[in-house]
Design goal:
This protein has about 120 residues and is an all-alpha fold. The chain has 4 helices and no strands. Helix 1 (about 5-30) runs antiparallel to helix 4 (about 85-119) and helix 2 runs antiparallel to helix 3. The longest helix has about 35 residues, at about 85-119.
Length: about 120
């Protein structure tokens, strides 16, 4: 049986990777042509890769810890693209819900498995 918490958290991180990719392009496009540098692209690309890495690491606690750090970093992206305060905040709420609901589903599945083993 698949782990519901890991599935929901990985889906959230994968979706965030897409949003961060597009926010990176927006941030890069907002800078006047004469002042553009690759900094936004490098930082945004690193965040995208970290989101995907964290999604793949969710079999261990380190993946979840990285996921929490990424939630803070993505919301902080609002200092570059102000709309990311709202979008990052929504994803942070989705992340929390994925963890809380995933834990509850895991407990319920363990209880059902325990009851079936007793029968």
């Amino acid at each position: 049986m698949r782990n519901p918490k890991r599935l929901m958290a990985a889906t959230t991180l994968g979706s965030e990777a897409l949003v961060v990719f597009f926010a990176t392009l927006v941030a890069y496009g907002l800078v006047p042509m004469a002042q553009r540098s690759a900094t936004y692209l490098v930082v945004g690309g690193a965040l995208v890769l970290l989101c995907l890495l964290a999604a793949g690491m969710l079999r261990r606690r380190g993946g979840y810890a990285l996921g929490w750090v990424l939630q803070v970093a993505i919301v902080a992206g609002g200092f570059v693209v102000p709309l990311m305060f709202a979008v990052g905040g929504v994803f942070a709420i989705i992340w929390v819900c994925a963890i809380v609901v995933g834990n509850r589903i895991e407990r319920e599945q363990a209880e059902v498995a325990r009851r079936m083993a007793q029968e």
